[in-house]
Amino acid sequence: MTFANITGWGKCLPPAVLSNDHLSTIMDTSDEWIHSRTGIKARRVSHVSCSALATLAARRALACAGLEASQLDGIILATATPGTLVPNGASAVQQALGAHKAAVFDLNAACTGFVYGLSVGTALVQTGMMKRVLIIGAERLTKLLDWAKRDTAVLFGDGAGAVIIEASEQESGLIANRLGCDGEAREILHIPDFGTDRERFAEIDGLFTFNFEGQEIFKRAVRGMGEATGAVLAQAGITPEQIDLIVPHQANLRIIETLAKRMDAPMEKVMVNIAQYGNTSAATVPIALCEALEQGRVKPNSYLLSAAFGAGLTWGAALIKWGDRVTPLALCDDELPPCQQTGLELIASAVAGCQQADRPR
Ligand code: UT7
């Protein structure tokens, strides 16, 4: 049987930090509220495009795997915030990397995008259609936020993470998965105007409506991730105690703690970095995975369990058996172009626009 071993990993976090205290200067919120309700202390704001974040994470993953971009057969960019819809964001990554042999596509499953992407990429490798696939989760959500709405503006941030999977005879990579979607609840996390549903010649004020029912999403997240993790463990014949590290989607620390409790897992077995980056949607899992490796928390042959949920409401879980190598073959020295602005400066014009549009007219 062919497996799809993870041989490279990389991340890219834009440098500009937007802390809870920064946010409390532009809206009625506080570090105390945000941190106690979500676990978030800060998030990053990108000064470059979504595909630029994705490309740097990909370059770092390629160096880690000791591969050239020309050796890639496929690129899957999991994102809900591509710079352009036509052409897809993955083609910008292909162009920047010079991955001329790779078939490329975007995959939109919102925050579950990376778990979906890893599943699709693994299937492509296991069927023999491809040998080496780059899977990226990248988002620039700060571009869509309504900075006049404190219920959503404080939750999200920008970033990217990437992995490379390669065909292997050794049992490794994604070994069990469960994906799904509660389509009947698609309205509870919904940006109705971001797409061709938007009235083409209507007056455009730059605002996207952000329908968001936090508590309902919370409940469904716990249920969806809980059921999906139970299903993958049963599928693989693995007990929760055998899991070495849980690498969950980072949307809310309380959701992560509930998932861990459901699995009877101590929090020491859970990778959590939500405090620094907030919810970067499809990028949370690959960024957390990358940091777990950097911190030496992944050992050869470890069992890793990932679970995520997002708009759709999509949900999913992935059981990964790590291979033999937990250190990069090489490092990539590339950096993003320098950013001359602070996080608050980067969002200033959007904040003014949102406050203006929010006024009763
Ligand atoms: O990855 C997919 C997207 N992620 C999610 O959807 C996350 C799922 N949901 C959640 O994480 C939580 O529901 C939230 C963090 C979004 C909200 O936490 P909550 O404990 O469910 O709070 P709530 O919505 O019930 O609001 C409680 C209070 C309200 O005030 P009143 O009505 O009790 O007076 C809100 O107006 O907190 C108020 N509030 C805020 N206060 C200060 C809401 N947002 C804020 C804020 N700062 N940023």
Characterization of this structure:
This protein is of the alpha/beta class and 361 residues long. The chain has one domain (3-358): Peroxisomal Thiolase, Chain A, domain 1 (3-Layer(aba) Sandwich), CATH 3.40.47.10. The termini are far apart. Helices cover 33% and strands 22% of the residues. α4 (89-97) links the parallel β4 and β5. It has a 5-stranded mixed sheet with strand order 1-7-6-4-5, sandwiched between helices. Bound molecules: oxa(dethia)-CoA. Oxa(dethia)-CoA binds at residues 29, 33-34, 37-38, 111, 150-151, 154, 214-215, 217-218, 221, 251-252, 279, 310. Pfam families: ACP_syn_III, ACP_syn_III_C. InterPro entries: ACP_syn_III_C, ACP_syn_III_N, FabH, Thiolase-like. The active site is at 111, 249, 279. Residues 105-183 form the Beta-ketoacyl-[acyl-carrier-protein] synthase III N-terminal domain.
Chart the SSEs and their pairings.
Blueprint: E1 3-12, E2 16-19, H1 20-23, H2 31-38, E3 42-45, H3 50-65, E4 74-78, H4 89-97, E5 103-107, H5 113-126, E6 132-140, H6 150-153, E7 158-168, E8 173-181, E9 189-190, E10 211-212, H7 214-236, E11 245-246, H8 253-262, H9 274-277, H10 284-294, E12 303-310, E13 314-321, H11 343-358
Helix pairs in contact: 3-4, 7-8
